[in-house]
Structure formats: structure tokens, C-alpha cells
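Retro notes, item 3 of 5
We never archived the inputs for the benzoic acid complex last cycle. Fixing that now. Sequence and ligand:
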Amino acid sequence: MNDWNPSQYDEHARFVSDYGHAVVDLLDPKPNERILDLGCGDGALTVEMMRRGASVVGVDRSAEMIRAAIALGVDARLMSGDALTFSREFDAVFTNAALHWIPQADAVIAGVARALRPGGRFVGEFGGHGNVAAITVALRAAMDKRGVACRDFSPWFFPTPENYTKRLVKGGFVVDHIALIPRPTLLPTHMAGWLQTFAGPFFERCQPEDIPGVTEDAVDLLRPALCDDQGTWTADYVRLRFVARLTS
Ligand code: BEZ
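Structure as it came back at the time:
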């Protein structure tokens, strides 16, 4: 699991919340609605929903991120997405770029269903099937070269729409919309910055002294596919975006 550092995140990954404004638009929070922001991070999108007049609670499992969100004035609480403790108190649950970190997807959906009032909506986006496929293969190859077995390892949950629809329906939701959206994503600080920020679970499996070599090899493998002739890096992101409603 990554240890999130808000300033590192701000430098290498601000695009995550920048892209998330479109998901806030999809949610369309209304004044006085009570909304749960699941995986609120540093609160950048939580404050956007608050600005639109909603009353928002943010939860995240990173204490550092919660501190950053509180500093922005968010009612932010330390809580894991697969262990939500709310009961029938929200009109909507919003989530952006968080659910791929939680493999216990059914526990997340059950907690969201408990947290919502009947008819409440669950709107979000996270990594979908095929997300960062090239990056994952390059990391696996670089680790394999050093004898670290991780061919079948992935710390991320990137489901197909069919897989996630089944889970939502089983959890008591009607799915109004769900789709994969390929979204090549410009990286502001090179592939090495992305790996440093997001690939922690891979690096935890190798010896600390091997991390610079694994990073270098992965970057070299990825350069022909993801770096253009101007030196600009683009990550192979695919999002899964959905709108669902609790039936009862
Ligand atoms: C994503 O937002 O797609 C993502 C985040 C961390 C690791 C992999 C993918």
C-alpha cells in the first residue's frame, strides 16, 4: 500500500483531481444534499462539491491526506472504503480514483449501500480493465529480471463494466450508466515521477537497493510506447465511469 504524501501527490499527480471535476459534474451535487466523498484524498474535489452548496463528508485511509483535507476546511475522517460505518445518511456517494486501491470491492459496495438513503446515487470513476497495462507489464519485466516473482501480482482492481455491474446489482443497485473510457493521460513529471508516486506496492516486493534499477529499466521499456519525440510522457489510463442508484 502506498504511503501518500500530499506534497509529492501535488507535484506528480494533481491531474487526478483535475480530471475528477468531470465526475463531479456527472454527480451534479445540489445545494443542501448530503454527500460522502469516498477516498477524498487531499480534498480538492470535496471542496468543489462544498462550493456547490452540498454538505460533504470525506473519508480516506491516509492520515496524511486527511490532514491536508481538514486544512482545506473539509469534514474529513480517517476510514477505509471497505469498512464504512455510515447508516442511511447520504443522498449520494461520490468517488474518484480511489476504488482501484481496494480489492474488497463487494465490501465497498455493501458499505456504500448502507451509507445511502433509499434511492440515493453512487457516482464515480476509477481504473477500469486495461488500465496502465503497459506500465504494469514493464514493472513486472523489470522485477522479473532481478528474480522478484510478480507475474501474477497486481495491487490494483481494474474491473470490466460487466464485472462491476454484477457486483453493483448484487449489492442492491440499479446501474444507469457504466462504461470504459480510454484516457491517455499526460504526465507532468515524467514516468519516473509516476512510478515513484503510484508503484509503491511493486517496489515493496524488491530489495530497496534494486528500486532505482527497476525504475530505470521500466522507464526504458516504456519509452518507445509512452514517450513522444518531444520527451512528453503519456500514461495508458482507462477509466471505468458509472452512475448507479440504490433500489431500496
Ligand atoms: C489510476 O488512477 O488509474 C491509477 C492510480 C494508481 C495506480 C494505477 C492507476
